[in-house]
Design goal:
The protein is an alpha/beta fold and 719 residues long. The strands form 2 sheets. Strands 1-6-5-2-4-3 form a 6-stranded parallel beta sheet. Strands 7-10-8-9 form a 4-stranded antiparallel beta sheet. Helix 8 links the parallel strand 5 and strand 6. It is globular. The two termini are 59 Å apart. About 18% of the residues have low confidence. The protein binds zinc ion (ZN). Zinc ion binds next to loops. Zinc ion (ZN) binds next to loops.
Length: 719
């Protein structure tokens, strides 16, 4: 790759630097081009009103917003969007009638002059031009959130895009990919969760370059803050869940043992596949072994040819050295196991494949990277050397692992995105603990219409089927002589030392392999009488299986610190956004309802600019602090101050009541805290648990981590 373009509308300098670092771009390369964070045609204001709904209604009728055709109002909670949209519909409807607004019948010019007279600024001229084409939209408002049906959402979006709907009251779900250049106003009814989201959301207004207005309502009591903290806590995890994940992500393998056995003399004995003969003793006969070896050999040839091809293609680049060393490794006679061979070859192929995938750019606007290919190769080689040194004691070449998404999500009580993020952390670690791969359907089910005799016949010809039988004989349920064969296909490919793709291809091809049909009428129709299906969408990665216990612990420590650092820095960010906005806010909306406070607007833009220019990585700082603390005390210091205002007796009573009602559940402290904070999780979804008002969102005023710790103590006491 010679050129790489990365784009984003909202990256702090710290984030951009971290992206550049992972891509191997030197800091001083001048590769990062930045634009201003807030476009000059947006006018920003903030107010801190006690009655926000009233304030919003009147703000909309003020000079700034009454002239805006398309307005998006952002709320944090779905229920709030619904409530607010209906309030706006009712209240503004009567306002319009009272003030003589005649909706679509009346042309805009007259209306504007009635409402705002001569004081109006630049927008007026443009407004006139437009209004000659279209009538003034009614004060109509609808809500939009992820809880609506797809049809409902489409309808709202369509009406808004067509200019038939003036106000959309939405959660942040609205606006992603929205391509409407004349959105005139963005109002944050609740606190934005970060400056990144703030800039992204206000950036949906005024894309046509015309003046547009943005306003934030701050909650003087700070309830918005605790609402947003819930989103942060939704992604944090207990040590026990991390341990479970590490166990599932790095299943122990036999490589070390095999390697020792191989080293001991039995070099001609290949790998586990040879146990097949023993495993399927009476089901299969011995010529299978020879067949398997023949197929393996062919596969090996294919791979060799491919590597040769790659070498030829790459000969002019700095990559050659890398391929050479890998090739040496593969052809080294001391590494005589097929298993080790194909694994290292696979990793060569994979590294090439993944490089080409990385080319697709992400969508966005202002941050641009361009760099020379040698810098990335250099960094790549460095990283390779580093991980080779650190992993030099490793015998295991890594295995492909599939974790069925639904079951791992339930097992860890953690959303898929959160698990994917944890795997990403492991991949970005200097030791590259895992390599994340594309999701796959990991269960293969094959039905043989010719029954068991057909299955048996096919197993003698097709290695993956034989291997699948072998795999099934080792499971708890054992292999039964039936007409259906079900097996985990990623595990199978790994056991065979094959790549996943050719295994799947070969399995799929069974359906049309007429030579396998027992019935001539089927084969005449081009069918084999075999049905192949893949199911169970799974997360997919590659990881070594010979981690020592201390390595496993350090992986857990790393993840725990990373999660904690993320939680802390996000909470700090939240406080920072609140404090910053508070610093430039008017005490009441009317101070900025008719005209923008230019000084405050300037200050806020300056704040945003300096936020994005900041090159200190907050998460990194937190991470360093945690690492220090871990060295000193072996335990992470608590940032929790015990709230004195909390009546812990009531909390304890509610915990006991919860356990009493749901005695069939084994709660963790975190699960209890999540329920009392109304935080949705895979095992305790809001749709089900949110209905029980006795517990859901019951203790919002108690700090989450204090609640979690208290609940854990109570659970132990109660058992
Ligand atoms: Zn292994």
């Amino acid at each position: 790759m010679r050129c790489f373009l990365g784009l984003t509308a909202t990256a702090t300098r710290a984030t951009a630097n971290s992206v550049a670092e992972h891509l191997g771009i030197a800091h001083d390369a001048g590769a990062v081009i930045r634009g201003g964070a807030v476009p000059p045609n947006l006018f920003l204001s903030v107010s801190c009103d006690t009655d926000r709904t009233q304030a919003l209604l009147q703000l909309l009728q003020g000079r700034r917003f009454s002239q805006c055709d398309s307005i998006i109002i952002y709320c944090t909670r779905r229920e709030q969007t619904e409530k607010l949209a209906s309030t706006l519909r009712t209240c503004l409807q009567s306002t319009r009638l009272a003030s003589g607004w005649n909706g679509q019948d009346e042309p805009r010019e007259e209306e504007e002059e009635d409402e705002t007279g001569k004081k109006k600024k630049k927008t007026k001229g443009k407004g006139k031009k437009k209004s000659s084409k279209a009538a003034v939209p009614k004060w109509d408002a609808e809500c939009y959130h992820a809880g609506l049906t797809a049809a409902q959402r489409r309808r709202v979006q369509k009406r808004f895009m067509a200019g038939q709907l003036r106000i959309v009251v939405a959660t942040v779900a609205f606006g992603m990919g929205l391509d409407k250049s004349d959105v005139r106003a963005i109002i944050h009814y609740n606190l934005p969760r970060s400056f990144e989201s703030y800039v992204q959301e206000i950036g949906r207004a005024g894309r046509d370059g015309l003046p547009s207005h943005c306003h934030v309502f701050l909650d003087p009591e700070g309830k918005d803050m605790s609402e947003l903290r819930r989103h942060v806590y939704a992604n944090t995890v207990d040590r026990s869940a991390i341990k479970k994940l590490v166990k599932r992500a790095f299943p122990r393998c036999e490589c070390k043992k095999l390697h020792e056995q191989l080293g001991n003399a039995n070099r001609h004995k290949d790998n586990e596949l040879l146990d097949l003969d023993e495993a399927c003793n009476d089901a299969l006969d011995s010529n299978l072994e020879a067949e398997l070896q023949a197929v393996e050999l062919q596969h090996q040839k294919d791979v060799d040819a491919r590597v040769q091809e790659l070498r030829d293609n790459k000969v002019n680049t700095g990559e050659t050295e890398r391929f050479d060393s890998t090739l040496k490794l593969c052809t080294d006679p001391s590494e005589n196991s097929n298993f080790a061979k194909s694994n290292s070859l696979d990793s060569v192929k994979r590294s090439v494949e993944s490089e080409s995938i990385n080319e697709s750019p992400t969508d966005a606007q202002t941050f641009c990277v361009d760099f020379k290919s040698d810098s990335i190769e250099h960094a790549d080689r460095q990283q390779d050397q580093q991980s080779t040194q650190e992993n030099s004691h490793r015998v295991c070449g890594g295995h492909e692992i599939a974790m069925v998404t639904d079951s791992i999500v339930q097992e860890l009580d953690l959303r898929e995105e959160s698990i994917a993020t944890l795997l990403c952390y492991l991949e970005l670690h200097p030791r590259r603990w895992v390599e994340v791969l594309q999701p796959v359907k990991s269960t293969c089910t094959i039905k043989f219409y010719g029954g068991y005799p057909q299955l048996r016949g096919v197993a003698q010809k097709i290695p993956p089927i034989a291997a699948a039988i072998s795999l099934n004989t080792t499971t708890a349920t054992g292999f039964k002589k039936s007409s259906t064969l079900t097996f985990p296909v990623v595990e199978l490919a790994d056991k065979m030392g094959w790549d996943l793709a050719p295994v799947c291809r070969e399995l799929r091809a069974l359906q049309w392999n007429t030579s396998l049909a027992l019935d001539n009428s089927l084969s005449n129709m081009g069918q084999s009488g075999i049905l192949v299906e893949f199911s169970d969408l799974s997360m997919h990665h590659r990881a070594p299986g010979d981690l020592s216990d201390s390595e496993r612990d350090s992986v857990c420590d790393f993840l725990e610190d990373r999660i904690q650092a993320e939680e802390r820095s996000q909470l700090q960010q939240l406080q920072f956004v609140y404090d910053s906005l508070k610093g430039v806010s008017c005490s009441e909306f009317w101070q900025c309802a008719d005209a923008v406070d230019e000084e405050a607007d300037k200050q806020l833009k300056q704040l945003v600019r300096s936020y994005f220019e900041d090159s200190n990585d907050k998460t990194k700082e937190e991470l360093a602090a945690l690492a220090k603390a871990r060295k000193r005390a072996k335990s992470i210091p608590s940032s929790i101050t015990r709230d004195d205002h909390v009546n812990w007796d009531i909390v304890a009573r509610d915990i006991r009541a919860l356990l009493g009602v749901h005695h069939d559940h084994s709660f963790t402290g975190r699960a209890v805290a999540r329920i009392f904070h109304g935080i949705d999780s895979p095992c305790y979804p809001a749709e089900v648990w949110g209905r029980d008002r006795r517990f859901w969102r019951k203790h919002l005023d108690v700090e989450f981590n204090s609640l979690r710790k208290f609940a854990t103590q109570e659970l132990i006491r109660f058992r």
